[in-house]
Design a protein that fits this description.
By secondary structure, the chain is mainly α. It is built from nine helices and no strands. Helix 2 runs antiparallel to helix 3, helix 3 runs antiparallel to helix 4 and helix 4 packs antiparallel against helix 5. The chain is elongated.
Length: about 190
């Protein structure tokens, strides 16, 4: 049942809300905790299989989310996590050198896919609650606010096109200046 655990949920949420370092440290702690909780071996402190399963899923999501923080990146990270989980389970089955029935193999493959997809669905579903609950502006929320189809931006464009154009020019300048000094250019752009 440990293979149904949404391995990348905490890593993706913390990566999108806070930063990568916090997400990585929490992922390691969560993997160790899951290994202790899901231990079924007599005389062992933790289950190494579960620790590695959770850790590989979390690190895979973190590495992929370095490329971007849009909704499409989260969905692609989920597919990648599912693939990594399936590969891990495949190697786990090979290493244990036990015979498994077809039903067990189908269960393990399904668990890997469900784990990855559940991680993404829960991340996208819980993200707005954490953003509003803790007052955090994530990159995904800033991108949503800067969308030209936003009702306020549409209203400014139709009623005062000069002001809209000026705001866009100032936003471009502010974003470029912030990126040159290492500040958050997207936040400056949305602010303008």
């Amino acid at each position: 049942i440990a293979f149904l655990f949404p391995t990348a949920l905490t890593a993706m949420l913390l990566r999108l809300l806070i930063n990568e370092k916090v997400a990585l440290i929490t992922s390691v702690l969560m993997a160790a905790t899951a290994g202790v909780m899901m231990n079924t071996q007599y005389g062992a402190v933790m289950s190494a299989e579960v620790v590695l399963y959770v850790l590989f899923g979390s690190v895979t999501a973190l590495l992929y989310l370095r490329t971007g923080e849009k909704t499409s990146h989260v969905l692609k990270a989920c597919a990648l996590v599912s693939t990594m989980n399936a590969l891990y389970i495949f190697f786990y089955i090979i290493m244990t050198q036990t015979t498994y029935t077809v039903e067990e193999l189908v269960f393990y493959a399904s668990a890997a896919l469900v784990s990855g997809m559940l991680s993404g669905m829960l991340t996208l579903g819980l993200l707005p609650f954490f953003e509003s609950g803790f007052g955090i502006l994530s990159t995904m929320r800033l991108i949503e606010l800067s969308n030209p189809n936003h009702p306020l931006l549409k209203k400014i464009l139709t009623e005062t096109p000069g002001t809209y154009h000026h705001s866009i020019m100032v936003a471009n300048l502010a974003e470029t200046a912030c990126e040159a000094i290492g500040a958050d250019g997207l936040l400056a752009r949305v602010g303008c």
